[in-house]
Amino acid sequence: MEEKKKHRRYGLLGKDIGYSFSRGYFTEKFEKLKIKNSEYVNFDISTIEDFDALIENNKSELHGMNVTIPYKEAVIPYLDKIDKTARKIGAVNTIKFTKRGLLKGYNTDVFGFENSLKPLLEKHHSHALILGTGGASKAISFSLKQLGIKYKFVSRTPFKKKEIAYTDLTERVLKKYTVIINSSPVGTFPTVHLKPQIPYQHITDRHLLFDLIYNPAITSFLKEGEAKGAQIKNGLQMLELQAEESWRIWNQ
Question: Residues with catalytic annotation?
Protein backbone atom coordinates (compact mmCIF):
# COMPACT_ATOMS: atom_id res chain seq x y z
CA MET A 1 0.00 0.00 0.00
CA GLU A 2 1.37 3.38 -1.04
CA GLU A 3 2.35 5.61 1.88
CA LYS A 4 0.27 8.78 2.11
CA LYS A 5 2.40 11.81 1.25
CA LYS A 6 2.87 14.24 4.14
CA HIS A 7 1.04 17.55 3.82
CA ARG A 8 3.43 20.47 3.40
CA ARG A 9 2.54 23.97 4.52
CA TYR A 10 4.43 27.07 3.45
CA GLY A 11 3.56 30.63 4.37
CA LEU A 12 4.28 34.31 4.65
CA LEU A 13 4.95 35.88 8.05
CA GLY A 14 3.97 39.53 8.32
CA LYS A 15 1.50 42.09 9.58
CA ASP A 16 -1.56 43.31 7.64
CA ILE A 17 -0.62 41.16 4.65
CA GLY A 18 -3.97 40.54 2.99
CA TYR A 19 -2.40 41.65 -0.32
CA SER A 20 0.33 38.93 -0.23
CA PHE A 21 2.17 38.48 -3.52
CA SER A 22 3.72 35.28 -2.17
CA ARG A 23 0.46 33.43 -1.49
CA GLY A 24 -0.82 34.05 -5.02
CA TYR A 25 2.53 33.22 -6.60
CA PHE A 26 3.04 29.89 -4.84
CA THR A 27 -0.62 28.81 -5.08
CA GLU A 28 -0.40 29.30 -8.86
CA LYS A 29 2.96 27.49 -8.93
CA PHE A 30 1.52 24.47 -7.08
CA GLU A 31 -1.43 24.31 -9.50
CA LYS A 32 0.70 24.72 -12.63
CA LEU A 33 3.26 22.09 -11.60
CA LYS A 34 0.55 19.80 -10.13
CA ILE A 35 2.30 19.84 -6.75
CA LYS A 36 -0.13 18.08 -4.42
CA ASN A 37 -0.37 17.99 -0.62
CA SER A 38 1.08 21.50 -0.47
CA GLU A 39 -0.41 24.88 0.42
CA TYR A 40 0.83 28.43 0.95
CA VAL A 41 -0.94 30.59 3.54
CA ASN A 42 -0.59 33.98 5.20
CA PHE A 43 0.60 34.04 8.82
CA ASP A 44 -0.62 37.49 9.82
CA ILE A 45 0.45 38.24 13.40
CA SER A 46 0.08 41.53 15.25
CA THR A 47 3.33 41.15 17.21
CA ILE A 48 6.50 39.04 16.81
CA GLU A 49 5.87 37.65 20.32
CA ASP A 50 3.15 35.49 18.69
CA PHE A 51 5.76 33.69 16.54
CA ASP A 52 6.53 30.83 18.95
CA ALA A 53 2.85 29.94 19.34
CA LEU A 54 2.40 30.08 15.56
CA ILE A 55 5.25 27.61 15.05
CA GLU A 56 3.98 25.32 17.81
CA ASN A 57 0.50 25.19 16.26
CA ASN A 58 1.79 24.43 12.76
CA LYS A 59 5.10 22.62 13.27
CA SER A 60 3.95 19.18 12.14
CA GLU A 61 3.27 20.49 8.61
CA LEU A 62 5.50 23.55 8.23
CA HIS A 63 8.20 23.23 5.60
CA GLY A 64 9.14 26.79 4.71
CA MET A 65 8.27 30.39 5.43
CA ASN A 66 8.84 33.81 3.90
CA VAL A 67 9.09 36.92 6.08
CA THR A 68 7.96 40.43 5.20
CA ILE A 69 7.45 43.84 6.86
CA PRO A 70 7.81 44.40 9.79
CA TYR A 71 9.48 41.17 10.95
CA LYS A 72 12.60 40.71 8.76
CA GLU A 73 14.86 41.80 11.63
CA ALA A 74 12.61 41.02 14.60
CA VAL A 75 12.33 37.31 13.74
CA ILE A 76 16.10 36.65 13.99
CA PRO A 77 16.24 35.95 17.78
CA TYR A 78 13.55 33.27 17.30
CA LEU A 79 15.64 31.23 14.85
CA ASP A 80 18.11 28.43 15.64
CA LYS A 81 20.55 29.15 12.83
CA ILE A 82 21.26 32.00 10.41
CA ASP A 83 22.84 31.69 6.98
CA LYS A 84 26.14 33.58 6.62
CA THR A 85 24.76 36.11 4.09
CA ALA A 86 21.62 36.79 6.14
CA ARG A 87 23.77 37.31 9.23
CA LYS A 88 25.91 39.89 7.41
CA ILE A 89 22.80 41.70 6.18
CA GLY A 90 21.01 41.57 9.53
CA ALA A 91 17.65 40.65 7.99
CA VAL A 92 15.86 37.40 7.14
CA ASN A 93 13.11 36.90 4.55
CA THR A 94 13.19 33.10 4.24
CA ILE A 95 13.02 30.40 6.92
CA LYS A 96 13.73 26.74 6.32
CA PHE A 97 12.47 24.06 8.70
CA THR A 98 15.24 21.47 8.70
CA LYS A 99 14.79 17.70 9.04
CA ARG A 100 16.13 17.99 12.58
CA GLY A 101 13.34 20.45 13.41
CA LEU A 102 15.57 23.55 13.46
CA LEU A 103 14.60 26.93 12.02
CA LYS A 104 17.27 28.38 9.73
CA GLY A 105 17.10 31.93 8.36
CA TYR A 106 18.18 33.08 4.88
CA ASN A 107 17.93 36.26 2.83
CA THR A 108 16.81 35.78 -0.78
CA ASP A 109 15.99 39.48 -1.27
CA VAL A 110 19.68 39.94 -2.18
CA PHE A 111 19.45 37.40 -4.99
CA GLY A 112 16.18 38.88 -6.27
CA PHE A 113 17.27 42.51 -6.18
CA GLU A 114 20.76 41.97 -7.58
CA ASN A 115 19.55 39.95 -10.56
CA SER A 116 16.70 42.36 -11.25
CA LEU A 117 18.84 45.52 -11.12
CA LYS A 118 22.07 44.33 -12.77
CA PRO A 119 20.83 44.25 -16.42
CA LEU A 120 19.72 47.90 -16.13
CA LEU A 121 22.99 49.34 -14.88
CA GLU A 122 25.08 51.62 -17.08
CA LYS A 123 28.62 52.87 -16.59
CA HIS A 124 27.55 56.16 -14.96
CA HIS A 125 25.40 54.36 -12.38
CA SER A 126 28.11 54.38 -9.71
CA HIS A 127 26.21 55.97 -6.79
CA ALA A 128 22.80 55.09 -5.33
CA LEU A 129 20.31 56.47 -2.84
CA ILE A 130 18.24 54.01 -0.79
CA LEU A 131 14.98 55.57 0.38
CA GLY A 132 14.05 54.03 3.73
CA THR A 133 16.04 52.17 6.39
CA GLY A 134 13.87 49.11 7.15
CA GLY A 135 14.71 45.41 6.79
CA ALA A 136 14.50 45.45 2.97
CA SER A 137 17.01 48.32 2.75
CA LYS A 138 19.67 46.13 4.38
CA ALA A 139 19.52 43.59 1.56
CA ILE A 140 19.60 46.42 -0.98
CA SER A 141 22.75 47.96 0.52
CA PHE A 142 24.43 44.53 0.66
CA SER A 143 23.63 43.99 -3.05
CA LEU A 144 24.91 47.43 -4.05
CA LYS A 145 28.16 46.73 -2.21
CA GLN A 146 28.48 43.46 -4.17
CA LEU A 147 27.91 45.38 -7.41
CA GLY A 148 30.53 48.01 -6.52
CA ILE A 149 28.00 50.85 -6.24
CA LYS A 150 28.48 53.42 -3.45
CA TYR A 151 25.31 54.31 -1.58
CA LYS A 152 23.64 56.39 1.09
CA PHE A 153 20.41 55.80 2.97
CA VAL A 154 17.81 58.56 2.95
CA SER A 155 15.85 58.74 6.20
CA ARG A 156 13.33 61.05 7.83
CA THR A 157 15.45 60.79 10.98
CA PRO A 158 19.06 60.15 9.94
CA PHE A 159 21.49 59.32 12.73
CA LYS A 160 23.97 56.81 11.29
CA LYS A 161 27.08 57.57 9.25
CA LYS A 162 25.69 56.56 5.84
CA GLU A 163 22.30 58.24 6.37
CA ILE A 164 21.14 61.62 5.06
CA ALA A 165 17.85 63.49 5.34
CA TYR A 166 15.34 64.06 2.54
CA THR A 167 16.09 67.78 2.91
CA ASP A 168 19.74 67.04 1.96
CA LEU A 169 18.73 65.95 -1.56
CA THR A 170 19.95 68.94 -3.54
CA GLU A 171 20.40 69.12 -7.31
CA ARG A 172 24.11 68.48 -6.78
CA VAL A 173 23.43 65.31 -4.79
CA LEU A 174 20.98 63.96 -7.37
CA LYS A 175 23.43 64.68 -10.18
CA LYS A 176 25.91 62.31 -8.51
CA TYR A 177 23.48 59.68 -7.20
CA THR A 178 21.80 58.50 -10.40
CA VAL A 179 20.29 55.27 -9.00
CA ILE A 180 17.38 55.84 -6.61
CA ILE A 181 15.76 52.87 -4.89
CA ASN A 182 12.53 53.12 -2.90
CA SER A 183 12.70 50.46 -0.19
CA SER A 184 9.98 52.13 1.89
CA PRO A 185 6.28 51.16 1.71
CA VAL A 186 5.32 54.70 0.62
CA GLY A 187 3.07 54.52 -2.44
CA THR A 188 1.85 50.96 -2.11
CA PHE A 189 -1.84 50.00 -2.44
CA PRO A 190 -4.20 51.48 -1.24
CA THR A 191 -2.33 54.78 -0.69
CA VAL A 192 -1.16 54.89 -4.30
CA HIS A 193 -1.21 58.70 -4.47
CA LEU A 194 1.71 58.95 -2.04
CA LYS A 195 5.35 59.09 -3.08
CA PRO A 196 8.73 59.61 -1.36
CA GLN A 197 9.45 63.31 -0.90
CA ILE A 198 12.44 63.81 -3.16
CA PRO A 199 13.05 66.77 -5.54
CA TYR A 200 11.75 65.14 -8.74
CA GLN A 201 12.57 68.29 -10.73
CA HIS A 202 16.23 67.21 -10.61
CA ILE A 203 15.59 63.75 -12.10
CA THR A 204 16.96 63.32 -15.65
CA ASP A 205 17.28 60.66 -18.34
CA ARG A 206 20.55 59.59 -16.68
CA HIS A 207 18.64 58.35 -13.62
CA LEU A 208 17.41 54.87 -12.83
CA LEU A 209 14.46 54.67 -10.42
CA PHE A 210 13.75 51.27 -8.84
CA ASP A 211 10.72 50.71 -6.60
CA LEU A 212 10.48 47.57 -4.46
CA ILE A 213 6.69 48.01 -4.60
CA TYR A 214 4.86 46.03 -7.30
CA ASN A 215 1.26 47.07 -6.55
CA PRO A 216 0.53 49.35 -8.34
CA ALA A 217 2.82 48.34 -11.21
CA ILE A 218 3.79 51.98 -11.78
CA THR A 219 3.85 53.86 -8.49
CA SER A 220 3.66 57.65 -8.19
CA PHE A 221 7.43 57.54 -7.56
CA LEU A 222 8.03 55.72 -10.85
CA LYS A 223 5.56 57.94 -12.76
CA GLU A 224 7.52 61.01 -11.73
CA GLY A 225 10.75 59.40 -12.91
CA GLU A 226 9.25 58.25 -16.20
CA ALA A 227 7.97 61.78 -16.89
CA LYS A 228 11.56 63.04 -16.58
CA GLY A 229 12.89 60.40 -18.98
CA ALA A 230 14.43 58.19 -16.31
CA GLN A 231 14.67 54.41 -16.61
CA ILE A 232 12.16 52.79 -14.22
CA LYS A 233 11.50 49.35 -12.76
CA ASN A 234 9.16 47.97 -10.11
CA GLY A 235 9.73 45.12 -7.66
CA LEU A 236 7.78 42.35 -9.39
CA GLN A 237 10.73 40.55 -10.98
CA MET A 238 12.69 40.89 -7.75
CA LEU A 239 9.83 39.20 -5.87
CA GLU A 240 9.58 36.40 -8.42
CA LEU A 241 13.33 35.78 -8.29
CA GLN A 242 13.49 35.78 -4.49
CA ALA A 243 10.44 33.48 -4.35
CA GLU A 244 12.14 30.95 -6.64
CA GLU A 245 15.33 31.16 -4.59
CA SER A 246 13.26 30.50 -1.44
CA TRP A 247 11.70 27.46 -3.13
CA ARG A 248 15.18 26.17 -4.01
CA ILE A 249 16.33 26.53 -0.40
CA TRP A 250 13.26 24.79 1.01
CA ASN A 251 13.69 21.83 -1.33
CA GLN A 252 17.47 21.46 -1.62
Answer: 72
